[in-house]
Specification:
The chain contains 16 helices and six strands. By secondary structure, it is mainly alpha-helical. The protein has three domains: 125 residues; 107 residues; 78 residues, no CATH class. It has a four-stranded mixed β-sheet. InterPro entries: Ift122/121, TPR_IFT122.
Length: 392
Amino acid sequence: MQLFTDLRMFDEAQICDEFVCRAINVMRKLERSDVDSLRRLASYFIRKSEYNLAARIYGNINDIKAMAQMHVAAGHWTDAFAIADRYPKYIEDVYLPYARYLAERDQFLEAQKGKISYLYYHWLLSMQYLERSKDNPSLIPKYYASAKLAEVYYAYHAIFLYCNQPFTRHSSETLLNMARYLAAQEPVPNISQVLINYTMARIGRELGAYKLARDTLDRLGSLRVPPRLQRDVELMTVNIRAKPFSDAEDLLPVCHSEIFPFLEILPLIEFFIDDDIPTEEAVSLVESEPPLSDSNFNPFQNVAKKSGEIRLNRDDLTRLEKGQVIILHWPEPLKTKFLFNQMPSISVSKCPSCNKVFHSDDFEMAVLQEGHCPFCRSVQERPDNPYTIDEP
């Protein structure tokens, strides 16, 4: 009986192979202009798991998008990534399904270690939207949305590692700012509100933000806390009862810069130029040497008393110390941004690719450890490192 079954399966395989061979012969005879017939053949090969033959057809008719979608549907991520690398306009067709694939399998940690993370995916996607927005301005909102998600996943990556690994390169203050930033956002897939609130409660209690810790512990009471964190939450809930009902003054929420809102608080203030000054001229004026008498010129000393945008004229720009000005160059239709470092003793670094700003020491350490910008992964050769903005 077993022999009969094996022979029947062999005959069925032979018949199947015969049909595939016939399809291959038909493929060879078809003209490249007969696109509809070739597409039907490609669909047949896909059903028979003959992906190489289907890919050959899609290549012949120059249907790269269909080829990418085939590899995505089959889970051939290496082949799909290769297509996205060669044809950047198909990044969205590859990485969005890949992000969903990881999300469905709860593989956020693997995503951080693998070829691409959620952060990197949304960063690449935002850059694609920005590039295409030159011809299609309606894509600008999509650029901002993807760039925002990249920032959210960057912050959450740090929170995730803090809750799952014994060491982190971020300071407690930075992690607290990141957790606060995430808590203020709309819910995002694959971001745990438990870990965000746990981080705020734990670090807030350690640093003296007792009111914040108490509020987040109350929120944790309504969430499903993993068993590994349950004991910590219970102990913090008991211990916080003996603490004051206020936060340390230096831990109160502040108005963050929109440049990179959840890192350590940097002494940066954004300013604008008068409408009659072209961007190129403004950059030239900033980079010129200021008069010696204006070496300590700071037009923002009383900024707290002002409201609205801070605008500088030509005279103000020439008086600025260029070592205290950070210029964020963006391609059109975005505008160039200008930042002023009010405390030159604090060294600030900027990534020239993503225009994110960091404390210089933290950024240099991240580049040394990872070999690239911690946000956009752009590699910068050393020692000619343009990241760091030297102190004046």
